[in-house]
Amino acid sequence: MNIIVTSIFVQDQDKALDFYTNTLGFVKKHDVPSGKYRWITLVSPNNPEGTELLLEPDEHPAAKEYQKKLFADGIPVTMFGVEDIQKEYEQLTDRGVTFTMKPTKMGPVTIAIFDDTCGNLIQLIQQ
C-alpha cells in the first residue's frame, strides 16, 4: 500500500495554486473541473511521480472549523522535507513568506513553520 494523494484544505484554490507553485516551487500535476471546484494536485519537482498534494476547498463547515482551530493553536497541517532548512528559510523569506517559527533545532532535526496564506501553517523539516 502506498500514499498517492494527501490533501490540505485551502480557502481559495486559485490563490493556493499560485502560492504553492510560484512561491514554493511545486509543480501542478492535475487541474480538473470537479463541479463548483477543481481537482488540483501538485508534486515536488524532484519527484514528479511521487505523492500528490491535493488543494482541497475548505467549504465543508467541519473543514473550516478544523482549519481555523489548527491555525489558531499554531499547529501545522503538514510537513515538507528540505535539504537545507536555513537556505530554504532565507529564500522563502525573500519571496515574502511569513514564518511563525524560524529554523529551530529539535534534537536530531531542525524545523520551521510558515503561513501558506491559504489558512494553514506548514512545517519544514531538515532531518
From TrEMBL:
Pfam families: Glyoxalase. Residues 1-127 form the VOC domain. Keywords: Dioxygenase, Lyase, Oxidoreductase. GO terms for molecular function: dioxygenase activity; lyase activity. PANTHER family: GLYOXALASE/BLEOMYCIN RESISTANCE PROTEIN/DIOXYGENASE, GLYOXALASE_BLEOMYCIN RESISTANCE PROTEIN_DIOXYGENASE. This is Catechol 2,3-dioxygenase-like lactoylglutathione lyase family enzyme. It comes from Ureibacillus acetophenoni.
